[in-house]
Amino acid sequence: MRNLVIGAVLVGLIVLAALISFLWTPFDPTQVDAALRLQGPSGAHWLGTDRFGRDLVSQLMVGARTTLYVGIVAVGVAALVGTPLGVFAAAGPRWLGEIVLRANDLVLAFPALLLAIMFGAAFGASTLTAMIAIGVATVPSFARLARASALQVLSTEYVLAARSAGRTGPAISVRHVLPNIAGLIIVQCSVSFGIAVLAEAALSYLGLGTQPPTPSWGRMLQESQELLAVQPRLLIVPGVAIALAVLGFTLLGDGLRDRFDPRLEGARAQG
Amino acid sequence: MIKLESVSRVYRRSRTSAFGPRAEVHALRDVSFEIEQGRRFGIVGESGSGKSTLVRLIAGLDQPTAGTVTFDGQRVNGRSERQLSFLRRDLQVVFQDPMGSLDPRMRVRDIIAEPLVAQRIPGQEGRVAELLEAVGLTADAGRRFPHQFSGGQRQRISLARALAPKPRVLVADEPVSALDVSVRAQILNLLADLVDQFALTLVFVSHDLSVVRHVCDTVAVLRAGELVEIGDVERVYRSPEHPYTRQLVQAIPTLRGALSGVTAEDLIRP
Amino acid sequence: MLKVDGLNIAAGELPLVSDVSFTVAGGERVGLIGESGSGKSLTASAVFGLLSDDVSAAGSVRLEGVDENLVGASENLLSSLRGSRLAMVFQEPMTALNPSMRIVDQVAEARLIHRTVGDRAAAHRDALRLLEQVRLRDVAELGRAYPHQLSGGQRQRVLLAIALANDPDVLICDEPTTALDVTVQAQLLDLIVKGAKERTAALLFITHDLAVVATVCERVLVMYGGRIVESGPVAEVLTAPEHRYTKGLLDASDLETVDEGGRLHAIAGAVPAAGKFPSGCVFRNRCPRADEQCEVSPPWFGEPAHGHACWHPVGGDA
């Protein structure tokens, strides 16, 4: 319960910051002003400015959009492709399952970074190509998890009971398998969300992700790396934002899993 | 009603080495018998006897490697799920594990209605209420989840689900072996009542010959996939013909026997 | 040999075992009967000093020749007793054996841990002899196997061999045959009785099966709702029960006697979840004879070793 609340608050803050940034930011996050370079926190610039004189708070707020956008698209691609694939590999004919597994291994063996570079080369480096690359690279982890947990559900007596009740394969997958693996998938989503946020930061840092001047937490890190010794604030601010985002999504996932499990209902009432 | 002719089922173990043949497990070997309508037919066997495989074959949930299974003159094996609708309506199964056989994420009313939904039988709501009453559960039980019930109540839910499509045959696979002794008698009584009330043919699978003796009129004894003895349950219990059945009957500890001086050693004395 | 007095076990505020007292003499075989939630396994764990950290125990468990109370004793003392003077056979043999260690080594280790023998070779010889004693065949070959390569019955025999390795004074068996087939169960029961007899060990045999208790034991303790509700010699308790629960249990497990309607004598309701038993007499919410008097906890009637806790006993009902 506490996980859920803390996670929801952290994620809620990010969402709020992103939403507000559409209407208002303290400054234009892309506005360069040499006179305001590397200023410390002040009444006007709450977290100071970077080496181009841009306001950090404004950049964080707009960067939150990028973060959410990346997370939602990357995790969406991974979950929406990976989960049905995994369930299909478990419930479908054996040979099809084998093919899915092998394809999975292939993607898994392929370095995600290389994939992102290839996507970047083919479609041009942008936030969208970065997150699709991250999503594609994350598909196997969903497919594997979905297949393993679906196999477990398929071996239960309630699935046997459903078959003898007259349910056919697709109905069993939808009515019994999906609801029973949903909890695990949700947790996987939140973990992957964290990883996607990190990966976007890493790709942007390498110049393969979000392109200037669009603010992104990863790019904030990249642009300030030489200043680590003199102005650590410039790295700490986006670093802490990324860490809190990852933490928030992980806690939210844990909390949601517990919330959605009817078996824990009694325990919750007691505890 | 249900007829098995020379049924065998071989499972192939997954490969343990890259070379050499896959290990084969003969779950059933050349089993033939017939269950007549209206019978209370018991199937007794220890672990590895093939009794669970037999249940799956009869219920059309698994395919025999050889032989045929027929229900009411219609072949069960080798048919697609679509072609088995006659079986799904007329034959229902109650499984052993009262927790594992109920989907933890479904409400009881949805669990009981599942055969009706799957077979597109109308009038679900009324039927669920009727069934809850028939198995001795209150109407509000429908809104709850399986984990909120005791083992005996869950087995009542399983029974209600099995009876939903008004089957003619009920297959019960070890329905009381996971229950407390003080609850077992209730469920056995309920089962007997339902079999009477709905004129069901009962196939009752158990490792416990004394339970089968109470419930059934006919018994088939399985050992390591083979049918070793079949006949009237009292006859088999009192004067078993096959040495294995004798051993089985002798090994059952009974209160009466123990109180009249039967020791553990007597249970295994050749 | 073993004396349990006023044993109470609770999980926080939730009482799980209340005021359990009994003794088992050397060479005596005592059955502890109960359904799920009766507290019988917890009682066994308390005697064996294996209670988990989330429950607390009070009262006393005393072993002859040991001055200290085993409840609350140091882990050092307990581990020196476990496997030497106290031994236990569990219900699930797979989890009680080390999956990555050969059978014979596990039995030999039982001899080595308590320094019963000096060297490995002697321990190994003893292990083979013990495996033979539990009538396993081809022990030289079987000893080299790993637990997963054995059948359930074989594994349970190995556990018994380990339990008997150091000639314990107290042997506790917690549902040792529940997971086994009847023919295998019969063999194991015979081995347990013989193993205990040969060592004149005190046997505490825990089960839910009345017929098994009657076959194995001389005395029986009936537990329900964390309390001992009746105790006495098997021949008396199981033929002329006093407590209404014992009577109900006997009737419910008797599959040969039915009423006029051909129905078994069932006990109403279900066994409550742990901690959900009623106040007063723990059986009163399912008892056909319960009245206002039963809202008060019944005292113990009769001898400590032969009596019951029922306001309206079967024999003495007006």
From TrEMBL, chain A:
<dbReference type="GO" id="GO:0055085">
    <property type="term" value="P:transmembrane transport"/>
</dbReference>
<dbReference type="GO" id="GO:0005886">
    <property type="term" value="C:plasma membrane"/>
</dbReference>
<keyword id="KW-0813">Transport</keyword>
<keyword id="KW-0472">Membrane</keyword>
<dbReference type="InterPro" id="IPR050366">
    <property type="entry name" value="BP-dependent_transpt_permease"/>
</dbReference>
<dbReference type="InterPro" id="IPR035906">
    <property type="entry name" value="MetI-like_sf"/>
</dbReference>
<dbReference type="InterPro" id="IPR000515">
    <property type="entry name" value="MetI-like"/>
</dbReference>
<dbReference type="Pfam" id="PF00528">
    <property type="entry name" value="BPD_transp_1"/>
</dbReference>
<feature type="transmembrane region" description="Helical">
    <location>
        <begin position="177"/>
        <end position="199"/>
    </location>
</feature>
<protein>
    <submittedName>
        <fullName>Peptide/nickel transport system permease protein</fullName>
    </submittedName>
</protein>
<keyword id="KW-0812">Transmembrane</keyword>
<feature type="transmembrane region" description="Helical">
    <location>
        <begin position="112"/>
        <end position="139"/>
    </location>
</feature>
<comment type="similarity">
    <text>Belongs to the binding-protein-dependent transport system permease family.</text>
</comment>
<feature type="transmembrane region" description="Helical">
    <location>
        <begin position="234"/>
        <end position="253"/>
    </location>
</feature>
<feature type="domain" description="ABC transmembrane type-1">
    <location>
        <begin position="64"/>
        <end position="253"/>
    </location>
</feature>
Automatic annotation (TrEMBL), chain B:
<dbReference type="GO" id="GO:0015833">
    <property type="term" value="P:peptide transport"/>
</dbReference>
<dbReference type="Pfam" id="PF08352">
    <property type="entry name" value="oligo_HPY"/>
</dbReference>
<dbReference type="InterPro" id="IPR003593">
    <property type="entry name" value="AAA+_ATPase"/>
</dbReference>
<dbReference type="InterPro" id="IPR003439">
    <property type="entry name" value="ABC_transporter-like_ATP-bd"/>
</dbReference>
<dbReference type="GO" id="GO:0055085">
    <property type="term" value="P:transmembrane transport"/>
</dbReference>
<keyword id="KW-0067">ATP-binding</keyword>
<dbReference type="GO" id="GO:0016887">
    <property type="term" value="F:ATP hydrolysis activity"/>
</dbReference>
<comment type="similarity">
    <text>Belongs to the ABC transporter superfamily.</text>
</comment>
<dbReference type="InterPro" id="IPR050319">
    <property type="entry name" value="ABC_transp_ATP-bind"/>
</dbReference>
<dbReference type="GO" id="GO:0005524">
    <property type="term" value="F:ATP binding"/>
</dbReference>
<dbReference type="InterPro" id="IPR017871">
    <property type="entry name" value="ABC_transporter-like_CS"/>
</dbReference>
<dbReference type="Pfam" id="PF00005">
    <property type="entry name" value="ABC_tran"/>
</dbReference>
<keyword id="KW-0547">Nucleotide-binding</keyword>
<keyword id="KW-0813">Transport</keyword>
<protein>
    <submittedName>
        <fullName>Oligopeptide/dipeptide transporter</fullName>
    </submittedName>
</protein>
Automatic annotation (TrEMBL), chain C:
<dbReference type="InterPro" id="IPR003593">
    <property type="entry name" value="AAA+_ATPase"/>
</dbReference>
<dbReference type="Pfam" id="PF08352">
    <property type="entry name" value="oligo_HPY"/>
</dbReference>
<dbReference type="InterPro" id="IPR003439">
    <property type="entry name" value="ABC_transporter-like_ATP-bd"/>
</dbReference>
<dbReference type="Pfam" id="PF00005">
    <property type="entry name" value="ABC_tran"/>
</dbReference>
<comment type="similarity">
    <text>Belongs to the ABC transporter superfamily.</text>
</comment>
<dbReference type="InterPro" id="IPR017871">
    <property type="entry name" value="ABC_transporter-like_CS"/>
</dbReference>
<keyword id="KW-0067">ATP-binding</keyword>
<dbReference type="GO" id="GO:0005524">
    <property type="term" value="F:ATP binding"/>
</dbReference>
<keyword id="KW-0472">Membrane</keyword>
<dbReference type="InterPro" id="IPR050388">
    <property type="entry name" value="ABC_Ni/Peptide_Import"/>
</dbReference>
<dbReference type="GO" id="GO:0015833">
    <property type="term" value="P:peptide transport"/>
</dbReference>
<dbReference type="InterPro" id="IPR013563">
    <property type="entry name" value="Oligopep_ABC_C"/>
</dbReference>
<feature type="domain" description="ABC transporter">
    <location>
        <begin position="2"/>
        <end position="250"/>
    </location>
</feature>
<keyword id="KW-0813">Transport</keyword>
<dbReference type="InterPro" id="IPR027417">
    <property type="entry name" value="P-loop_NTPase"/>
</dbReference>
